[in-house]
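#struct-help
A.M.: can someone run this one for me? Single chain, 527 residues.
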Amino acid sequence: MRRLALLALLLPLVAPAQPANAQTSAALACPVRVDPAVFASEARLNTLAEQQEAYGPRPTGSTAHADYVDWLEDEMAAIPGLQFSSLPYNIDRWDSLGTGLTVGGTAVQVAAPVPFSSSTGAGGVTAPLVHLAAGTNITAANAAGKIVVRDLPWTNVPNLLFYPLGLGYSMYDPGMTINLLGSESMEAPAAADADLKAAAAAGALGVIEVSQLPHAQIQGMYAPYEGLPYGLPGAYVGADQGKQIKDALAAGQPVQAKLTVNAAWTPTTTRTLLATLPGGSAQKIVVESHTDGMSPVWDNGPLTMIEMARYLSTLPVECRPRTVQFAFVTGHLYQHLTGPNVREGGAGQLAAQLDAEYDQGGVSSVVVLEHLGAKRYDAVARPNGLPGKQLVASPNLTELLMVPVSESTPLRELVKGHIQYWDVKRTAVLKGLSAADLGTVPHHCGFGGEGTPYNQHLLPVISPIAAPKTLFSPQFGAEAIDLPAMRKASLAFTDVVLDLGPMAQSAVAGDVTAMRQQRASGTPGCA
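D.P.: on it. Structure tokens below:
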């Protein structure tokens, strides 16, 4: 789709009437696509990533998180024409004050507490250990009064799922680097959520989650991130420490352990930052990413947003038929941001607000940016017979970039075209990231990340996200970003936002329009 033709056709619908020759002149001045010579260089993106990394881990509401959001506001404030506002939220921030573990009187190194664990205070809790293997239910009969040792599972997703016969709409892998018969896998610390809940219900006194990765690669790991207190303490240990614990249990004699998770809840305020670039009409395209995370690759979307805003601000308003709002959202690492009954984080709060504005013509679409240019790491056997696995960076591959797009063929074709033009390799444009249910609207309830609540609120949404194995650990810094790949993706999605400006809303929305009508008539949404 060429922007020149779209502007000539649609600009009169979204801007004050002008003489025909003025419209033609304005259209001719608008770029057909982003000029890479005037967009952020790889060096500039690296500078931003290193600045982000300098803040360190940024749990929701922490000082580091607040400072990072302030820095983002300063960066955006240096761009002319932006208007600013914030959406504040009051939370009880969870702070780790120290963790420790002894097994049979011997100290065992702890990689991290499970976030939102119950505090033991400085004195810890002492109880017998029990190892309950994967697949074994945690019950009162096997866990009451004990500290449960649990192995973290790995998820496995078949690659075929990302092709058109599965959830795919199109795949761009010109080097044929994806094994069709293989699968994508990563460790799943989110499983600790179910373990801690089951252990608390069973009367256990604590949980130790054992990773297959070494301590050095999971130190500071942060997951799950519900924002609700667990009823007992939990901690992560690496593969070597897990072997140390299991070796102690292998003797067959009862083993006492002391687990210390010293933590505090502190009332604080966190905010979503909104930076708005006015366009020819008040109807807005919302570009979103979250600001709380452990590493640059977890939430480098804001870095692209800075440079996207900088580029768009240089264009005359005639080349921005719609307003563009940049939403730097909080609460990704505190999903129950507003209480125990709603799990959506700041993205869900914003999605509900946009949903209410949509039918009045206030919103056109949402573009969510996560994990752009995530370098691929492979889990390989550790050397010298050491237990578990270690993550090793691929010399030339990025992780698969999954791009769920809501149910509009023109929107999916738009994304597909820019992905291919900018050569964003290993990218799958998807219909969703959950199985279709024709009895709900939308049909695909899951989008794999921050895009999910916008999709579930029946907003036209484009939501690129990767699943790097390094995601939950702060031990992988800016070096986990493939800068050339990040820049190509940034150019592609800036072009997407440019083309969304003059695109007819009926094409942007596709089947979303009918689905909103179906919802109003009683068709159920996503649970």
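A.M.: thanks! The longest helix spans residues 483-500.
D.P.: also worth noting: The chain is about 30% helix and 25% strand.
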